[in-house]
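Here is a complete protein record:
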Amino acid sequence: MAPNDSAETTGEATSTVGGGRRKASRYIVPVAVAGVAAATIGLVPALANTGDPDLPKISAQELVEKIAASDEEQLSGTFKISTDLGLPLDGLAGALVPGGERGGTAAPQDKLMELTSGTHTLRVAADGPERQKLSILGSSSEYSVIHNQGEVWAYENGSDEVYHAEAPEGRDAGEHAENAPKGAAATPKDFAEQALATVGDTTSVTVDGTAQVAGRDAYQLLIKPKQSGSTVGSIRIAVDAENGVPLKFTLSAASGGKAVVDAGFTKVDFSRPAASTFAFTPPAGAKVTEADELETGKDEHGAAQKALPGQLAELEGLAGEEGFNVIGEGWTSIAEIKAPGGKGLPSAESGEVPAEAQGFLDALGDKVTGKFGSGTVFTTRLVNALLTDDGSVYVGAVTKDALVRAADAAAR
């Protein structure tokens, strides 16, 4: 193992990261990182590790700069992915959607939600900013999202449903294409940029040895909260020693156990994929659903498909808005949201929900009391939320006690 520099660094380590990568304010650290974990993907440790390579010494500052400077735009590879949030998603789906039905279109929003739990294999390919492809490989099926210049297609082989959206061409297309599946092409680099945007005085950043990922020599960048009270234990990023591309991303909970998110390549190739990789023509007789049909509500499932996974970081733009407040900073920051009308969760007592549904909600949360009154805390291994009976919501990657303290402080 190379004797890498393990001295701590702070926000200065990301001073070379572009403005877009540092745009996320530090208060949104838990929401941004947790949003990625909760609504996108993770990787089980199924990578081919063949020992720790002996690499030249590098500092944390230099390694962060290496990630920021990486400009590989052509690649293809395979992910082996899983997420363990400790959230009963299957039960929630059955309770919220009668019969567990997910909708009838091929829109990515529905399919990508399947990646929020369990283990999955994905294949990715990219050829610059105008061509990307992500495929979810099932035991007997393959679902693909394809961005080819100005068009986005989504299709599951053997299905008669096709999703189509238009996207502007060019390097900034991903930032401005409202109809494009932004959460679909997540890679370890996407995860790494989210994590690096959080680095500040509340964060420790070190180089923690080396590894080999998908046959590539890599340095390991370790990011840890300095604050107590966060549910985030650490973030580990394996960075390609040659080109600076993040190859593996692991998010661990402070409570220990299996990684919450662990995303990385089992195979990767940085040569240009064949142009045919991104070609798609709807099969004869297939029903093509346009993105604007879902957005305008023309499709019966449109209301449930508006929001794409991985967009919780957009809460940054709500700071200072009416009904939205941020308590604390860094990894222990908490978003406070005031519900219109001061109304809390529906209850069986009020006749708003059936008794069976009330029992399900009660089983998901823990009743708490404090100076704020009373409420229910809903927990996962990473993100916790307190819903008070007067309609306030406190959410963050913090402990239950931290949420109660925040609600008490707000009630003074």
The CA atoms of residues 204 and 224 lie 5 Å apart. Residues 400-411 form the longest helix (12 residues). The domain at 11-309 is CATH 2.50.20.10 (outer membrane lipoprotein receptor (LolB), chain A).
